[in-house]
Design brief:
With 85 residues, this protein is an alpha+beta fold. The chain contains 2 helices and 4 strands. The radius of gyration is 13 Å and the shape is elongated.
């Protein structure tokens, strides 16, 4: 199956969502290339970027599930579909 490279960017404003967020990332861990998290204490939010390589349907499902968590905003950016391995 063809895969895409994408970055899912998250703004986490509710710390209570972190446990559920980490459970979702563990569930999809086979697709995760890497993850970077930055606490922004001045605004009381956490910024998380997750790089993934997965079928587009999997990326959409993960992004949707993350974005439906209370206090979590999610946006996805896809690499050009011309990337080959």
């Amino acid at each position: 199956m063809e895969t895409r490279v994408a970055v899912i960017s998250l703004i986490v404003a509710d710390e209570e969502a972190v446990l559920q967020l980490n459970l979702l990332l563990h569930e999809y861990s086979q697709y995760v290339i890497g993850r970077m998290g930055l606490p922004y204490r001045a605004k009381n939010v956490n910024i998380i970027c997750i790089a993934v390589d997965a079928p587009q349907s999997i990326i959409s499902a993960l992004s949707g599930k993350l974005g439906r968590l209370p206090g979590v905003n999610a946006k996805t950016a896809y690499a050009s579909s011309t990337i080959t391995s």
